[in-house]
Each structure stands twice: as structure tokens, then as C-alpha cells.
């Protein structure tokens, strides 16, 4: 995984003290974002005592208190707020220097952890990997299958470098590259065909539903549709990821909301049917990465390649 590996001997120069070190700046910003020493330690793959030591050393060097410690977590003092902006600029400058150096070398080296929120075939993962290898043979890829909300969380904690996600809202700390508006469908077990007529929302609400994560963009779409009709779900199964939901639908355990193409495969297999209604559903698919790492050479290479691979995909939500 790409990370900024910082040796304790790496200096940031005479910002305020010749003894200040870059890893202290990174630790400080991690605590700011997590509001917790424990969470920051997990994010940085270190221990809470180590994080506390870094913060204490930085406060001693600067001669100010950066955080108010309370049961609610680590909250910035007014002095800490002033330092935060400068610290972010320092870290961004270091990343820019790294990016420029890589550009001058004319090559991108390292590895990328990429989250997949759907099937590799649908996401063109093979085409993406092949194209990236041709352009940047020194860059290694590792794909991990997760649902969108977990991919976004992992990008924020730097456990993933980037990933494919569905999301309905703006994410200020995440850079989103739009790829395609993906049509969605409600897949219903074939055994319920005569019990749930098309466009009969009341009948649909009477049967079991396969629920998803509370942060799932798909869930937001279908919840809105139910709420408009003053209806609620009946569910006794929860599963994240289209593949798992599709299997549960095929086994007759409930209806589920998923990508249209996957629902169509179930219909062709005879295990489910696509329930038709007057509404059309779709979600925007994005390629996501941490905004402050957009100039990282490997991430930039991945984004450029993804843009080429997906350049001819529709911006309108159309069923193929």
C-alpha cells in the first residue's frame, strides 16, 4: 500500500524549531481528523502511547497546547487550530515534492490497494490492471472486495488507496471521479411471482427484504421510495455486497435492491424476476481517493488510466 514512510531522522527544516520532525506533523493531523489517540494509532499502525508521545513532544517544541483532552475526545485548542492549517500545507508540500521527483524520474513505483464494490467484470478491473501495467510496469495492484461505505472508510484511514464506490452525497475529503450512472433494479424471488404484482408496493412491503448497511447508497434510494408511500420494510436478513444479496434472493430469502445487470442474470437463471414499477432507479459510480493525495504519482496514474478505460460510458441512467 502506498504510504508516506517517514524516518524519525527526517526533518522539516526551521519552521519553528530545528528539532521538529515530519512524523510528528503526520501524527498531529491524524489525531485532528480522528479526534482520538486510539483511532489515530490504529490509522498509523502504531500504539496509543506512541501517538501521545509524538503529540507531547510537538507541544513541547512549539511551547503551546494543541489539544483539549476530555471524555469526548481530543479537541483542538485555538492555538491548535492555527497550527493545523500550516501542518496541512507542510504535508501537502512534501507530497508535491515526492510527486515531482517521481515525475522527473519518468516512472511510478510502488503499490496500490484498490477497493472493488461490485464484480471485477462490471468494474473493468482486468482492463484497468492491463492498461496500468503497460503504462507503469513498476506499479503493483491489489484488489479487495468491499461495499462502498467500507471502501470510503478505508480510504479515509489510508487502509485503501482508492476504490470504486456508489455515494449519494458530497465527500469534502474524498476526490470522486464520475464513471457511470448505473441502473438499479428490485430483484424478487421467482416463487413470489404471483404474490407480488408489478407496481404493487403494498404487496412488496408485505414480503421479506434483504437489508444492507445503513451507509449503503442503494439503501438510501429504496428507503426513499418506501417512505414516499408511507411503507416500511419487513426484513430478517442483512447482507452487504451485491453478490451476497443476489445469492440470498436466489435462495428465496427475500427481495433486494441491486445493479440491474446482476438482477437480469438472476432473472435469466430463473431464480428471480425484476419487479417493475413506475420509478427508475440509478446510482452514480465513482472512482474515489483521498483528496489530499490526488497528486501522489501512483494515484494520479490510476485515475488517468481509469478515466481512459471508462471514457465511453454513459452519463445517463439507461438499461442495456
TrEMBL record:
Cited InterPro entries: LysR_HTH_N, LysR_subst-bd, WH-like_DNA-bd_sf, WH_DNA-bd_sf
Domain named HTH lysR-type: residues: 20-77
Species annotation: Pelagicoccus mobilis
Keywords tagged on the record: DNA-binding, Transcription, Transcription regulation
CDD domains given in the database record: PBP2_LTTR_substrate
Superkingdom of source: Bacteria
GO molecular function: DNA-binding transcription factor activity; transcription cis-regulatory region binding
Name used for this protein in its record: LysR family transcriptional regulator
Pfam name, any one: LysR_substrate
Family: Belongs to the LysR transcriptional regulatory family.
Amino acid at each position: 500500500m502506498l504510504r508516506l514512510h517517514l524516518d524519525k531522522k527526517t526533518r522539516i527544516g526551521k519552521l519553528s524549531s530545528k528539532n521538529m520532525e515530519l512524523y510528528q506533523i503526520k501524527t498531529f493531523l491524524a489525531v485532528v481528523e480522528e479526534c482520538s489517540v486510539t483511532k489515530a494509532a490504529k490509522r498509523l499502525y502504531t500504539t496509543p502511547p506512541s501517538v501521545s508521545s509524538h503529540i507531547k513532544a510537538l507541544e513541547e517544541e512549539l511551547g503551546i497546547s494543541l489539544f483539549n483532552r476530555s471524555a469526548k475526545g481530543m479537541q483542538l485548542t485555538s492555538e491548535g487550530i492555527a497550527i493545523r492549517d500550516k501542518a496541512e500545507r507542510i504535508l501537502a508540500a512534501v507530497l508535491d515534492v515526492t510527486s515531482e521527483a517521481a515525475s522527473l524520474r519518468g516512472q511510478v513505483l510502488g503499490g496500490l490497494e484498490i477497493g472493488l464494490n461490485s464484480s471485477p467484470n462490471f468494474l473493468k478491473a482486468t482492463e484497468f490492471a492491463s492498461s496500468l501495467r503497460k503504462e507503469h510496469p513498476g506499479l503493483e495492484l491489489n484488489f479487495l472486495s468491499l461495499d462502498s461505505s467500507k471502501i470510503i472508510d478505508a480510504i479515509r484511514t489510508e487502509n485503501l488507496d482508492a476504490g470504486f464506490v456508489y455515494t449519494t452525497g458530497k465527500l469534502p475529503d474524498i476526490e470522486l471521479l464520475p464513471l457511470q450512472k448505473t441502473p438499479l433494479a428490485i430483484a424478487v424471488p421467482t416463487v413470489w411471482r404471483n404474490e407480488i404484482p408489478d407496481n404493487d408496493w403494498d404487496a412488496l412491503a408485505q414480503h421479506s427484504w434483504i437489508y444492507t448497511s445503513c451507509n449503503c447508497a442503494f439503501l438510501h434510494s429504496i428507503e426513499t421510495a418506501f417512505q414516499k408511500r408511507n411503507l416500511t420494510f419487513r426484513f430478517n436478513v442483512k447482507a452487504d455486497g451485491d453478490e451476497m444479496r443476489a445469492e440470498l434472493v436466489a435462495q428465496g430469502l427475500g427481495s433486494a435492491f441491486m445493479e440491474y445487470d446482476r438482477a437480469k442474470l438472476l432473472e435469466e437463471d430463473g431464480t428471480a424476476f425484476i419487479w417493475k414499477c413506475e420509478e427508475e432507479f440509478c446510482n452514480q459510480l465513482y472512482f474515489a481517493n483521498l483528496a489530499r493525495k490526488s497528486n501522489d504519482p501512483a494515484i494520479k496514474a490510476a485515475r488517468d488510466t481509469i478515466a481512459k478505460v471508462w471514457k465511453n460510458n454513459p452519463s445517463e441512467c439507461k438499461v442495456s
